[in-house]
Write a structure and sequence with these properties.
heterodimer, A: mainly alpha, B: 6-stranded mixed beta sheet, 4-stranded antiparallel beta sheet
Chain lengths: 262, 302
């Protein structure tokens, strides 16, 4: 198992994509943190001033895009090998396909954690810089800020592993990536907008609330900004995401993973 | 001792039978040409040998065990399938480092195999920019990383230029000299005829023949071409002696299943003048084509 994990890590280090995705996660986080920061305190935006804990946390918890990038990375780790057809070499070297899947899930979680950590640090830094540049005090404690960064790390890690499950199940990198964005931007938005009571249980929403985002703050479309049911407790949200990642991987292992490698 | 054994392998993809009850074995240290036209079922069969494709029925073993149950499969079998089946964004060296890590091959082996296939100078280049020939060489380097005793090479000459084919033949000869067991597939007999001890010929998913190259040579027939002013009369006389005769022009015959001596004797007895006789012996490629064509005919009449 250790060898499989080290192999997957080496695969990641020897291509540009993980670094490009890290850059994308940091850039998107920076752009939307700055946008939220610029809206803070303005009338009609619904974003409280940066001098308040509520306003500052809107900026420091804009880590949802990094979580989506983590999920995309997970899909790529699992399905990219079928796109480039190097899955043949992977399974020649390690015929135990479940072991390869477990290693990929672990590595995707590690990579996702890095993206979440990076996004958390970027958003928190921007939030602090914006607040101090306006002469405001930092309304959130260091512990709270660290918890948000930690939550972003955990949330992105679990979505990374979920991406591996999805990529294994679908086997198509492009379809998997599209599925991630459609799920987060359309399906969760529609379901979240229609049925507020189940919003905390939707995986992307649950991951963002781990990072301290209010329900609906990270949502797209009609569900954006909608409050309602409170977020799941940290442990429950973590467990929910872990179960979803495990279920998708198990489903993939029992179905598509057994298929012939052509 | 047989190191590769395929027993009654069947593979169906939906209603399509890609491999139909194929049984063969490969002896240790032998070089086997796995031949057949495109779509014959060669690649599917080879993929079944290494567990990439699960047989619908039958069993494939390496050293008596399914590939997946070998303790260190990559140390036993080195396999090359698609020349393009490598990540185009990696350098050749990084690709081999990944494979070395996955197969527990010594890291120092990476430079050795790069040198072996003549890619040392391109080690840091991205594979996406490699020519087909360079990719084929990289595939062979990958297969040799663990210095395996058995090599399975699927169409390694596909797309190679004449210089590449020449290099590959020399490379296969070196592998054979090392005493390795090599299974090399091709749709051209000429690509493997110089190195193979035996051939497995497939067509339409079926095993046509599994024989030594020497035995295959004995199946080579000959055609005698005769120029005569009385072809119909000579044809009747030869046919009466059991020869296969075809009048191909107003003064020409093509005769099979007879020797030139027999043709001359029959012509003399019938007092038919002969102006010219040429004898043409089939080469191995002709035998191969004839065998696969016969299989195709049988398939059509089925």
């Amino acid at each position: 198992m250790t060898r499989s994990v080290r192999t997957e890590l080496l695969k990641l280090r020897s291509t540009r994509l993980p670094f490009a995705l890290a850059g994308l996660a940091a850039e998107l986080t920076a752009i939307f943190s700055l946008l939220e920061g610029s809206r803070a305190g303005s009338s009609g935006t619904g974003v409280a001033p940066l001098s308040t804990a509520a306003g500052l946390s809107v900026v420091t918890t804009v880590t949802g895009f990094a979580m989506l990038v983590a999920a995309v990375a997970g899909v790529t780790i699992a399905a990219g090998e079928f796109r480039h057809q190097d899955a043949t070499l992977t399974y020649l070297a390690t015929p135990n396909r479940s072991r390869v899947l477990a290693a990929k899930a672990l590595v995707a979680a590690l990579l996702g954690a890095l993206y979440g950590l990076l996004a958390g640090v970027v958003a928190t830094t921007i939030g602090i810089l914006l607040a101090t540049s306006q002469g405001d005090h930092i309304a959130l404690s260091a512990g709270t800020l660290a918890a948000h960064i930690g939550g972003a790390t955990v949330g992105a890690a679990l979505l990374g592993a979920t991406g591996v499950g999805l990529g294994t199940l679908i086997r198509s990198q492009l379809a998997g990536v599209i599925a991630v964005f459609v799920w987060a931007a359309v399906i969760e938005s529609v379901i979240g907008g229609l049925f507020t009571s189940i919003r905390p249980y939707l995986p992307y929403t649950a991951a963002t609330t781990l990072a301290g985002a209010k329900l609906g703050n990270a949502a797209f479309g009609p569900a954006h900004g909608l409050t309602g049911a409170g977020p799941l407790p940290f442990v429950a949200a973590t467990a929910l995401l872990a179960v979803i990642a495990a279920l998708l991987s198990a489903l993939g292992a029992r179905t598509t993973l057994k298929r012939d490698i052509a | 001792m047989a190191v590769i054994e395929a027993r009654n392998l069947i593979k169906r993809f939906g209603h399509v039978v890609a491999v139909d009850d194929v049984t063969f074995s490969v002896e240790q240290g032998s070089v086997v040409g796995f031949l057949g036209p495109n779509g014959a079922g060669k690649t599917t069969t080879l993929r079944m040998l290494v567990g990439l494709v699960t047989p619908t029925e039958g069993r494939a073993t390496i050293n008596g065990r399914p590939y997946g149950q070998l303790p260190s499969p990559a140390r036993v079998v080195g396999a090359v399938f698609e020349s393009s089946s490598v990540h185009p964004g990696r350098s050749a060296r990084n690709h081999l480092r990944v494979q070395a890590m996955a197969t527990a091959a010594p890291v120092g082996r990476v430079d050795e195999v790069l040198d072996l296939v003549g890619l040392t100078g391109a080690a840091e280049r991205r594979i996406g920019g490699f020519s087909l020939g360079m990719r084929q060489r990289l595939g062979l380097a990958t297969a040799l990383l663990c210095d395996p005793e058995i090599l399975i090479l699927d169409e390694p000459a596909n797309g190679l230029d004449p210089e590449g084919v020449h290099w590959l033949r020399r490379f296969l000869r070196d592998l054979a000299r090392d005493g390795r067991t090599v299974v090399v597939s091709s749709h051209l007999l000429s690509e493997v005829a110089q190195t193979a001890d035996a051939v497995v010929i497939m067509d339409h998913g079926r095993l046509i023949t599994h024989t030594t190259l020497a035995e295959l040579t004995t199946k080579a027939g000959q055609t005698i071409r005769v120029r005569t002013p009385r072809p119909d009369q000579l044809a009747r006389a030869l046919a009466a002696r059991g020869a296969g005769v075809q009048v191909v022009a107003s003064d020409r015959l093509e005769i099979t299943a007879a020797t030139s001596e027999e043709v001359g004797t029959v012509a003399a007895e019938a007092q038919i003048p002969i102006f010219e006789t040429t004898t043409e012996t089939d080469d191995l490629e002709d035998v191969f084509l004839r065998l696969t064509a016969e299989a195709t005919r049988l398939e059509v009449t089925r």
